Every structure is written in C-alpha cells, then in structure tokens.
Fold these 2 entries.
Entry 1:
Amino acid sequence: MLFNTLTFIIFHLVCLFIFWITKSLLIRNVLLFSGSLFFYGWYYWPGLIVLVLSILLNFYFSLKIAQTGSKKTLSLAVILNLTSLSFFKYSKFILENFLSFLNSFGLELTIPEYNYWLPLGISFYTFQVIGYLVDIYRKEVEVEKNFIVFGVFKCFYAQLIAGPIVRAKEFLPQLKKVNRFNPEKFKIGIYYLLAGLCIKIVIADTVAQFVDFGFSAPEKLNFINAWVTLYGFAVQILSDFWGYSTIAIGIGYMYGIDLPLNFNNPYISSSIREFWRRWHITLSFWLRDYLYISLGGNRKYRLRNLMATMTLGGLWHGASWNFIFWGIGHGLWLVLERVIPFKIGNNKFAKLTNQLIVFHGVCILWVFFRANDFKNAFDYFQSLLGMFKSSIKVSDTLIFQLILFIFFVVFFEKSLKDQRFLKWSLFKQVSVSLLFIFLINSYANAKLDFIYFVF
Amino acid sequence: MKGLIKYTLSILLVLLCTEQFVGHHQNYFRALSDKLLLKLEMLKKRENDKLVFIGSSKTLDAVDSALFNDHFNEVSDKKMKSFNMATTGQNYKRIFHTIKKVLKSQVKVLVIETSYVNFLDGNLGFDESEKRNINKSNLSIEEDVQGFLSRNLHMVRLRKAFKPKSFLRLFMIFSSNIFNHDMWFRSNTIKQIISKFKVVQDFSSQDLIQPKIISSNINGDERFRNLINLLDTTEKKIIFINPPVAKEDHERECNDENHHSYKTLSKELDTKVYDYTCSAFDQKFMRDPTHLNSSGRSAFTKILVRDLQKEIEQEI
C-alpha cells in the first residue's frame, strides 16, 4: 500500500478509529501489528512471508541474547539478518560480478536469468532490528518479551518501508502505555501527513519526470540543462525521502507516537560532516553507532573506519558499483575534511561559499547515485562539462518546480521540525492545510513509487 | 478538542464550498483543461475584437496580435483589435471546431492558417477511425471534438482546477482584454514576461518576402468540403494564410498539390490564400524549420499588415 493512494487513506482512517475507541493496550498493539502486516502484504503478499520469518527469528534471538549475553548468538543473529538482506538485495550483483571475474580468465559463463525480487523495506527493517539486538547485547535496552509489542516495533506501518529507522529505547516505551487521545498531537499529525504528501506528490514526482528524461539521454543536455537537471535530482531525492519521513512522523503523531526527525535541511550544510548530520539522520546515526563504532570508531584506524562505513553505507543504498562509488566519494570527502580542515572564513559570505561548495559537491556525487551505470554517469559528467551541444531549452515547469521547492523550504521547513504549527492561528492552520490539499489534488496524477523503496 | 473539531470542520467546509463553486462555473474550469477552450473563453471576454487568427503553433509563433494592431493602426485610419487564437498541438478537427465557434462571435475577419500539417495532411494526431469520422459529416467532427473535451472535464474538476497553471489561465481569461495574451502561450514565457519585446527596426517589409497569392477557379479537392460548407454560409471575411517556413520545409509546403487545394478554397469561398512558404525567409528569423522566432514574428507581422491591410479595411 502506498501512502499516496486513496486505499491507504481509508485503511489509515479505519485503523485510527479502532485505535482510539479502545482503551485496551493489547487491542491497540494487536491492531497496529495486524494492520502493519496487512499494509505490507497489500503491496506484495510474498514479502509478508519474509517479514514474518524475520520477526519470529529476531524475537527468538533477542530473548536468547538477553538471556545468555552471548556474543556468538549476537553474531549469528546479525549474520542471519545480513544473509537474508544479501540474498534478496545483493545476490544478483555478487553473482554477476563473480561470473564476470571468472570470465576474465577466459571462461565463457553466462549469467543465469531469474526474476529479481526485493522485499519492500528490507534494508530498513533489517538495520532497525540489528540495532535492537546490539542494544540488548550492550545492555542499553531491555529485551521486549511481548511478541506483539516486538512485532509493532519491527513493522509499524508508518515507518516500515522507508524509515525513519527507530531505536528500541525510544520506541518501545511508547507502545507500553495507554496514550490518551491528544487533539493537538492529532492535528499536527494531519499537518505532517498533508505536508509530506505535498512534498512527495507536488515536488518529487513532478521533478522526477524531467530527471528521468535527462539521465536517460545525457547527450541531449547542454551545459545549463545538465546542471538544472542535476539540481532537479538533488531536489527530487530529498523531497521524496523527506516527504515519506514527514508522512511517517505525521502518522505516528496521529497514534500519539513520536518518530525521530530524519531530515534537517541538509542542503544548507557548510561541510560534508554537517551534511550527514542533517541528511537521513536516523541512518547516519545508525551507521555511526553500529558500524563505525563497532569497527573501532575514533580509537584506532579512524580514517579506515570512516571509509569502510561510508562505502558500506553506499552499498546499503543499492546493489551496484554506482552506489559503492557514491559511498566511496562521500567517504573520501569526509576523510579529506578531517585530514585537511578547510574553511574559508567565518563571515556570512564565507558560510554561503562553503554551503555552495558542499551543495555542488553533493550534487556531483548524486550523479553516481542516479545514473544507471558507469557509462551513463560518465556521459552525464560530459554533459555537465558542456561537451554536448543541444538546442533543448530548460523547461519552465522544471524551473517552476525548483522555485516551488525553495518556497516550500523557506516557508514550511521549520514548521516540520517543531510544534510551531500549533501556535499558528486557526485561520493560518486551515489555510496552509487547504493549500496542501489543493496542491496534492492537482498534482495527484503521477503514481511513482517512493525512490527509497528500492533500498 | 474544540481546536481539532474547528480545524477539521473548516477544512471540510472549504472543500465542499470549492466543489460547489467549481460545479457552478464549469465553463471557466473547462477552459483550464485545454488551450483551445481557454482561447475560446478568452474570446468571449474580449470585446470589440475585429479580427482573429486561427491556426496552429506555426501561426501562434508567426503573428503577434498586439504588434499587428500597432502596425495596422499606423497605416490605417481604422482601429484594429485582433486576437491570435492559434494554439499549439492543433489539428483539422480542432481548427474546424474553433472556426465554428468564432463564426458565432462578433469578429468580422477570420485569418485562417492553411498549412500542410493542419489541412492537407489529415494524419496528424488522427488514427484511422478518426480519419474516417472526418469524412463523414460536420456533425461527427463536432461530436468528436466535444467528446474529447468533455472526457477531460472530470479530470479538470478533480485535479487540474487548482494547479498553479490553472490559476494563471483563469487570470488570463479575466485579463485577456488588458494584457498581450500571446506571450503566455509560447515557450520561454518567463523570459518574455521579464524582457521587453524586441521590434525589428532594420528591416524593410517591402523587400523581404512576397506571398504567392492564389485566386483561381479551378475545380478541385474534396478534402476541404466540410470546411468550405461551414465557411460558405458566413458573411464574415475569410482570408487564408500560410506563414513562412525555412528551406527544409519548402518542398513540403510549397508544392503543386497544396496549391491545387488552395485554389479550391479560393474558388469556393471567393477569397485569397496568401502562401508565404515559397519565398526565401532568412534563417535568422526561424526558431526551427517550421516556427518563427521573436524577430521573425515581428517581421512577419509587419508583412501581414502590408499585404492584408486593404482587404481588412473594407470589412472593419
């Protein structure tokens, strides 16, 4: 079930109604658990088998780790989770590369064809549960003995498919108390839901069409077109994921559940380090706490750990050398920033210059992220250098959408980080909500999937 | 709790009122769905229009009505007010529909584009069944167009009515008497809004190109029968033009077959066809082989005044 469908809205309203008319914690958690499974199975039911198996397996391992405190059990659980992720996400990539490697020795092996299927959100729920298991091992969180509560933690439909990646110590306590209906929280939940849908449908989906065209034929783009299209992708990917996260937070609020902020205006970062503190925050912190620190963190081989973390972070985003390169690019940049601290100055102009440098650096690395393969990326870099002549003019609509994005960030971004919506007058609350509804309504003809579904 | 109830009810109330409003103003909202309907709605709003240009993007890019008025008023003692109703993506059916509507308006002169793509080649945008319909009767053409336009109506109400573009279009309808509408319909709209329109100064309209004026009594083609039947009944002045093209398009536009058809039109309707496609038009005036650029538009508009002034003056 996709958030930007009428089916979801009906499903969500029904769940909300049942949730709030009952005061039984058990019924509420059963509702959230079964509702989440239904939500997940609606999109593609075979994925449900993998999800349920993962829940059962990890529930067992969590109890075992808490009981024995065994590192071996933790390792086994992590390996099993990663094997499952690798099987679905990386098996084709590994096989292709392995056969290509053998073929380089003169063998003539053909890559077998098989239907490639990736369970939705497997990267997210796998990372979330690995974090939970490690937390239990580190004794940072109490093990959850209630299977239903654990199930909701593993697959709450608001954040199941594309995050934010929640931490057990923040999430589980919220499922163990009977929340009283909070109208203010519910209202702000509606606002987040509408704002998220607006970001996704109005900006991300529309810009996507231009980006798809640009990356499908970079040779048709002249210098200006190539850069505007790249800015378009930068806006698209942020809007797509920011929109999804905002919807997730909104849904959480409507149930009285707080979900963590996932984006904090990343394109105004003055350094790449700051960028990663603002971009996909829950993933960045996950990588820091469970990968970087596990590799040794700052204690030893700091730069190696950083490179490894970012490279694996890149691989997490997709099974392709492009993503690995993207991760390596960010890793190298982070390493460089640590080795050679670079700052132009402290005044406003210097800050702006830094922000522009970081933004453009991030944009250039997005080429690897978005391109279909290396050739496509190479062609796109050529178009960025103005090596292709083209008479195609930059679309007014694309420019309009990019301006709309800036407008959105300037006027509404702050209201999506705190509760200031509640301080607005009723007139402003209603006007802004209506603006979102009208925009969603008028742009709602594109039914593209959320980009992050493939991760 | 009161806050939440007020918030929710306010939103629902506004949405219901909006739906009612859209329902009661379907004409305007219909006009938002289609460029042709938009221009027809604009025509209703525009009072005292004496001349309209009807055609495709070729005419849209070839004529600037504000400039046409200025040039005409410079050389004539009669006051001109023209409206370029040409739009992009036109075909025979849509042009036929436009003419039919314009014939019912106050307009006195219709300048209709007769070019290869719009009249001689019925294939543009038509599948086989549509082509058969064209040959059936006037009614079926009209029904087809109406059907197409009404099929989009629910989409308009549900989705398009509140697009920023739609608001722009509503603004265009209500301000069509004030602003030069032409700029909204061409590419580079933003650029045109912020930059001043360039009038080509160093050019003598007399020397540039001459039309091939076709007026003959040769019996001919049946392809224009529907159009001829429609136009034959009107008292309004009809003039046909075919705006200039670049060298690449000469052969397609300026050939015996086309001229044979133009002769039919000319004979049946007792009018003239001004075909500019046979003259060499400088490449610097072309945006692409078919469409003029802004300098070309400026130049050609002046040429049109030169050639049509006398014919038009008698009618307005």
Entry 2:
Amino acid sequence: MPSLQTAHSTEPLIRIENLCKSYSLQDADGGTITNQVLFDINLAIYPGEFVAIMGQSGSGKSTLMNILGCLDTPTGGSYRLSDRNVATLSGNELARIRNQNIGFVFQGFNLLKRMTALDNVATPLLYAGIGREQSRKRALEQLRQTGLENFAMHHPNQLSGGQQQRVAISRALINRPPLILADEPTGNLDTQTSAEIMALFEQLNREQGITIVLITHENDIAAYAKRLIRLKDGHVVLDQTRESAS
Amino acid sequence: MNFTAIVGEALRALRQNRLRTGLTMLGMIIGVAAVVLMLSIGQGARTKINETIAEMGSNLFLVVPGATSSGGFSFGSGSVRTLTINDSYAVAELSSVRATAPVTSGTVQLNYAAKNWSTIVTGTTPDYFVVGKWKMESGTAFTESDLRSAARVAVLGSITAKNLFGDEDPAGKTVRIANRPFLVVGVLMAKGQSLTGRDQDDNVFIPITTSERQITGNQFPGSIRYMLVQGNSDDEMDLAELEITQLLRQRHRLATGKDNDFTVRNLTAIADVATNAAKIMSIVLGAIASVSLLVGGIGIMNIMLVSVTECTREIVIRMAIGANQRAILTQFLLEAVMICIMGGIIGLVLGIGGAWLVSQFADMLIVITLGMVGLAFLFSSAVGIFFGFYPAKKAAALKPVDALRYE
C-alpha cells in the first residue's frame, strides 16, 4: 500500500518484493508436481511495528514466516532484511542473522528439553561466541526481567505452558534482536495465560520498540497488533493499520 | 560458539544418555583392549626371541664336519670327523675372527652323594664361555692350564647343579662323572631354552682334553663334533665366512672343484628367521584385534545415526537460535570422538590389566610400550572421527523448516 509506506520516514526493516515460493514434489510416475504456496507478495515492515499475519491453514502464512525468519529461502522475488539481500547470504551468514537479528517464539515453545531454563536462554549467547559464565549471567538477568528468576534451574517439563513460553521469549530477547517472529505463540495456552503473553509482547513493542511479527488465526490475538495482514491462498488480501490499537 | 562451549554441549549429551553412551563405548573398550593385549603378546614374543639371540652370543658361526658317503649312501652331516681341535685353533688366528671353541659331547651319568643324574657332557675350551656369553652363578670357569693338564674339573649348568646339589653351592665339591671324581669349579647362570627349544642349562662342561682322554674317548683322536666361531664384527660376517672356508679347505687339502668336507652356518641368519616369524605373528594378532576395533567403530556410527534422528528437533531448534552448520557438525563429531577416546582409555587399562594377567598365569613375557599406548589412542580417535563424520554431517545438513512447527 503506497499510502502506508509514505507514512514512514525511515528505511523498512523488512522489504519483500514479488516474493514467490513453490515446492517441487515427485509424483508416483516420476514426474514433478510443482505446488506454489506464495504468489507475488509485496510487503514492507518498518522498525517498531506490531504486525499480525492471519490466514487459514494452507494460506501460506507459515511459509512466509519461515522465509522471514531466514529458515527457508524464496524461489522468486527478493527479501531484504535491514537492507541486506537475504537470498545472497551463505548458510553461516543466515545462521548469524537468526542469532543476532531475529528472535523466534513458537507455538510448541521449542525449548531444549535437556537443559535448564537458564541454559536455554543462554544458548543463543554461546552461539554468538560469548563465554559460558558471561552468558549465564546475562541469561539470569533476562529471566529476572520476565519474572522467572526463581525458575532458572528448572527444566522445561517442570514449568507450566505460560512459564515455558516466557522462557522462550527470554531466549528470543537475549541477543537484543530488532525483530521478533512469533508463530502462533498462544496456540497451546489457555485464555488467561494467552492474555499475559500478549501483554508481554505489547510491552516489549511499546517500551523497547522491538518489531513484532505475529502469526495467528485467532481474531482476539490478532487484535493486540497495530497492523493486520491477511493471507488467502498465497496472496495478500488485506493490509490495514488499526489506529485504535494501543 | 567457541570450542569449549561445544565440548560442554557434547559432554552434556553424553551424560544424559548414560546407557547409550556406555553401550557404544563398550565396542571401543573391547576393540582397544584386544589390540593392546594382542600387541603386547606379540611384542613379548619378539622381545623374548631377541633376548635369546643376545644371550646366544653375537656374530656366531657354527662349523660342523661334512657328510660322507659310501657306495651312493650318504651318512649325513657330521658322519665323518673331519674337524679337529687344531682346526679350531687355526681358525681363531684369522683376523676376522675373535674366538673359537671346539666342542665334543657325549652322555654321562653324574653322581653326588646319594643322587645321580644323566646329562650331556660337553668337552670344550675356556673360550666357549666367552663366545656363548655364559655368566657364572658361582665359582669360575676352568682355565687354559686345566685344559693343558687335562684336569678333572667341571662347570655345571644350573639345572644339573640343582638336580644334584639342591640348594647346596656345588662350587668346590667333588662330583663323579662316569665314576671319576671331578672338582666342580663353577656353576653357570640359567639361560633357558635355545631358539630350537633345547634346554641349555642341563649340561656339564669339562676341558676338551679331559673329555677326550677320560670320558667320551675318541675314535679319531683330535676330532671334534663342531666348533663355535665368533666373528669380529657384524660387518665382517661375510668376510669371516669366506676366510674360515678358505683356511679349512687349505688345511684339509681339498683340491679346487672338490666339495667342502665341512659346513659353515651363520647363526645370525637363523636368528633372523625366528625374529621374522615373531614379527609376522604380532602382525596377524594385531590384524585380528583390529577387526574388533572396526566393529566397535561401526557400532558408534550406528548409534550416532540413531541419535541424529532422535535429536532432529533439538538440532533444528539450535539452528533457529543461531547455530551454524559447523557448530552442529563439531558437536556431533565431538560426541563420537569423546566416546572413542574414553572407550580407548578404559580399553587401554583393561588391555594392560589383561596382559598382566596373561603374564601371571600363562608364564608369557608381555611387553607394553609407550608406542602401543599412543597407537591405541591414535586409532581410537581416528575411528571416532571416521565413523562420527557421516552422522555429524547428516545432522549439520538438516533443514530447520519442516521440523520446527509440529510436535
């Protein structure tokens, strides 16, 4: 939407142009079936935005999320993150971007089961090349900010769903990334806990200016975001900014 | 991620799967223990042979009389008494020869007090003890003057001494050899078996002159059964053989074109054969043991492959939070290498323990060298890297996309 882009003076954090994604499968006869999931997506997301991407199952929202998170590569078009063309980066550089620039929050929490909450939060720092002691110190500080310092030495299976998701958010925040990608973050949580987690996202967006891209299919969760993007069958069918959102 | 952090992650994974780690390690433990045990047994056999060769004396030739034949019927080696004591003395004068010892022998009965013992009596010269590197347990060897006067003096081998005298010191006692009294002047230190398996310690030595005149008698006076010749040095063995042959041909007045009536045998060559046999034995033992190490390695690869499949989720989570391929590869490779090295150390200890047990119960010489320890170590880490690489590579090549979203 041209009107939206002119509203911002800074460069976009995420700029997607004519992005396509298709998967090739071998059928039983040895022929190739091409399944296109995303068609000519154009999108610009600016620093400090809180965006919800909605759509039904099969609308391509998870594929878009994987591409945004540098976990997958597009088959056409371009994706620039912080003005770097992601398609041209090597595996190591992508790993570094996932480590430094993006924090992931998943529906299933995706904590490392065999580690304490503290070590889970500290692991991205280890991959950033920071020593174990220093990493643990910073991880404890991060858990304190999310109100989980008393659970630092617990393993994920000793924590409630809400606590696990808070650990996951702490892990996403530990390297101070400009962007958080949340894939159905409240999908496994009850209403009360969902509200708490969403309040935490809102707070992070408001107070620290972290850009949040949220994928959900629930309207009341999407209502926390300031901007709504709706996908249908691999096309963007709606992109609107909500003035009323706080 | 720095290296110590990756080591920490690998150790954590090993600790958390103790049973799996232990069972995988077992393959390595058995493999390394088998290699160490087999190598130490092989090395022990070689050392034993080398010791025997060294004790036998170095640079030795055995000169035996030739064969004779009558009417197309060969009597075999030593069937004529062509070698004499004087031949032996003449050979000793050669520049390439250090010393010689002529030998005659026969079987006799020995008596001391109420005990008696049948053994081989060897008539020789005092040089025999020098050439054969014999050491004295007590007393001394007989002398040149004993030789000249055909004195009734005897030197006993350790087994003969033990059988006749028990714990008594035989030196200075009188023993009866073929019913004639002999003064025991010395007892030899035990040497054990020769390369051919003959016991060298069941023996009695007397001056060759005494033997010839009083004990064995002689059909052809002055002839000997064989002579031992010690060459001057390792390098001159060929020269010595040539000189001995020429001198003996000359002394025996053999015309050109006529066969030698004696044979010169280089004992070092015999020793080489024995050494080679031992070497082949240790190679074969090592090869057999290596198979178990190989099987252990394949076991590791198997388990690591299962482990990679099991940990797919963990691996892609790590990738999502910033692990690059190298960090994943290193972590899994280190897991395999650590299993191998830990298994290697335990196997080494067990192998050395097993070797010790073998040496205690089977009365075999076992030698463990630092090189073997290093080899076991090198081998086990090589197995870890070789068999750990493919699973680690597979782990690093995982794509994070598919596994992340669903439980």
